[in-house]
Amino acid sequence: MNGREKTAEKMKAAGIFRLPRIAYLALIPALFLSGEAAFGLAGEMPGPHRGAVTALAGDGDLIISAGEDGFLELWNIRDGGAEERFQIGFIPVTAMAKQPGKTRVCVLESDGFTLYRISVWDYREKIRLFFLDFGDPVSCLGYSAGGRFIIIAHSGRAGLLLADSETGESVPLSGIDGTPVFAATGPSERSMVTYFGNGRLSYRDLRTGDEREALAAPPRLSPLVIFGGNRFLAGLDGESLVILDAVNAEILEKREAKGAFLSAWPGGEQVHSLAPVPQGGNGEERIYELSGWKANGTGRKGGTPIPRRRVGLAGESVTSFLSTEEGIFFGTDGGKTGVIGENGRARIFASGERKRIIEAEVSGETLAVITEDGCLGFLPSDFSRFGGSPGVSFSPSFRPCPGYTRLSGGGGEFVLWQTAARTPPPVLVREGFPDRAIEEADFRFPLRSVSALDEKLLFLDAAGNTAVIDARTGKRIFSFSAAGAIDAAFADGENIILGRSAVSGNGAFLAVNIVNGETVPLYLSARTGVRVYRGSGGAVYGAVIEENPRKTVIVSLEARAQGKQERLFEYDGEDTLFALAESGGEPALNPGGGEAFLPGKEGPLFLERGQGLPVKLLDGGSFFITLDGEGGLSWQDNVTGRLLALFSLTDGGWTLAEAEGASRGKISRDSDSFEPSQ
What we know:
By secondary structure, the chain is an all-beta fold. It has 1 helix and 60 strands. The strands form 15 sheets. It has a 6-stranded antiparallel sheet, with no helix packed on it. Strands 1-49-48-47-46 form a 5-stranded mixed sheet, with no helix packed on it. Residues 1-38 have low confidence and may be disordered.
């Protein structure tokens, strides 16, 4: 089976089918093909989460962690280190459940406002099977005992529903009034127990929907877990750990556990809690108390408390907690994952280091990047020039560029700029040449976009003011103002195109001739023109938001004619964060912040990727260059989508991984201050 056939098979398995070029895709599952590349960042251990670890799950010798950075990470218990890390989205993961018997997890991603997305992932194959969107908070997420169903409780009208774990098709449950905070099935998956915040404990027959028994348990227990052969329930009331007999809701044990985390594993006989201990002094070490309760045996009523142990964590606060047959694990607010030993000592799992690249741009044969600590560096745009060829040496130099976060390029030069309200003027930079401040582009309002063509620079600010400046002299040669302008780009040497909010009968795009000032509205049935992009071959692309139904449409634009706007691709929802680039005459994009692909005449051809989802796509000549959410760079063939190389930075060095192996080198830092010449 060749690479294209393998891609087709994976697309079919993920529910993706080849579509016509002008296609309507309501739901595109994320497809991860990094395993096809047969290489990675060889010898590089993945870094930890960036931000808090929000959820943990166990699979034998493997711990799966989820974070507010939108990544899943796999940790090997035996090796004590990070094994793999990949991005599933750009919003925090707030909950996660492991499917029994399979390498799958169900995760809840939420922005805390209106988006609550539940998705199922195979964490070994890195494939999303499906997702379900909710517009209201989800209070309970888990799998049925056998893994056939996903149990979802949310504050919508349905309250509680079961979703098929293979397809996501949902079956609302009748007769349930309110939204439970806990739900679980028995081993046969024919009965369900639910617990509501008012203390109602209900047992229901799933085949008939009838309630078989209702009990009065203590109210406001959250979270709640079941253990000991489904004989016992444990919950936290904010002050104490409460152990209940699941048969009659009798309280068997109540122990102080203020602000604790709670966990028990299915079929296990123990429940554990981890509670913070109030600290005095400078608080450099966070102390937690590990305790719990152990059942005397399946089907027996009695149990015994688990002796208390103190756990110390230097400078870290626990944000997630998990107990399994393999051990007791935790995640921290600093993105670390660790294990608590039998002696009460906490051990943090090993992870690598990574310096993130936050911005990148290509101009000529140079790739400029800005790092997370505010440094500017220049790299070859062709990865084969990184040092793998005989006689070629490569030692990139990075220098501080405080305050600048954006790059635009053209003609072998780059414009450094930023979108903050009060900024220094844009600066024109080129490797090996003095920097030049562009004083006539110092707008009163924040900049929205900057582009370059034929030694001309185009600037657009947040008030809709545009300026075209001669890059050689720094003088302004054209100005124009358009209310509601959102984006701008050159169409050719004489015309620019503005994307704007289509109010009062305006077109979503406006073409402006910078020689004679003539304007040509480009009318489309759209509310807003949110993006304008010019490819290296001269083709101009736009993105519009349409209403009723709301969707995002990618179109080709012709500056000189109103009737030549062609719809290329469309999909559901309002999307302004997608990446778009053209290479080799074909555009690539990543709708919904997911995988990048070439629309193609035969249907979507996905670009293989590294660890992160695309943040920005660049034209590298015969390949696409992708800046991803992990802060790394990757090169993909612009015909096959094949991943060719991965690039990452650490504080002192760089790694370039190819199919044949990895190259490494050091970077130097220019200590001189960033002072552009006038």
